[in-house]
Amino acid sequence: MTKAREVMHAGVECIPIHETLDRAAQMMRELDVGALPICGDDDRLHGIITDRDIVVKCVAAGRDPSKVTAGDLAQGTPRWVDADADVEQVIDEMSTHQIKRIPVMENKRLVGMISEADLGQKLSDEQIAKFVEKVYTRH
Q1: Which of 35, 36, 94, 102 could form a disulfide with 50 if both were Cys (CB 3.0 to 4.6 A apart)?
Q2: Rounded CA separation 112/108 (Å)
Q3: Could you tell me the CATH number of the domain that includes residue 42?
């Protein structure tokens, strides 16, 4: 069985919880990613911020991205999977919560991120179809 660690993109970088959204956008551009995990001073995962979050929840709401922090947009309990989770568990977690990216943890540390692109490159057509059907179907 394929494990999360075999599908994930390793070497993921966090945006500190107190960093501003303009810096988050710059990091996304530099890293060529659409999402960043938000980590606290304790190195714990506090959430994920996406490029869409910055646009919709900050810019379109008339807020200043140089004053709003990543932590200001961190909401709820972050979803994640263990590095040794079976890929079916990864698909189920992402599908259940209709999320397109998920952090991968090992020993309470962030070790990678799995995105739709990662799944598309590593999974069978059947697994991809299952994921797409569940994530993109409105409940």
Answers
A1: 35
A2: 12
A3: 3.10.580.10
Q: What is the pLDDT of residues 2-24, one digit of tens each?
A: 899 999 988 889 999 999 999 99
The beta strands (E) that lie in the chain are given as 9-10, 15-16, 35-39, 45-50, 81-82, 101-106, 109-115
Number of domains making up the chain = 1
How far apart are the C-alpha atoms of 2 and 104, rounded to whole Å? 14
CB 1 within 8 A of CB 86: yes
| Helices 125-136/87-96 angle, 10° precision | 20
The residue range of the domain holding 41 is 4-136
Q: Work out whether the CA dihedral 133, 6, 118, 93 comes out positive or negative.
A: positive
For the stretch 71-83, pLDDT in tens is 999 877 889 999 9
Q: How far apart are CA 71 and CA 91, in angstroms?
A: 27
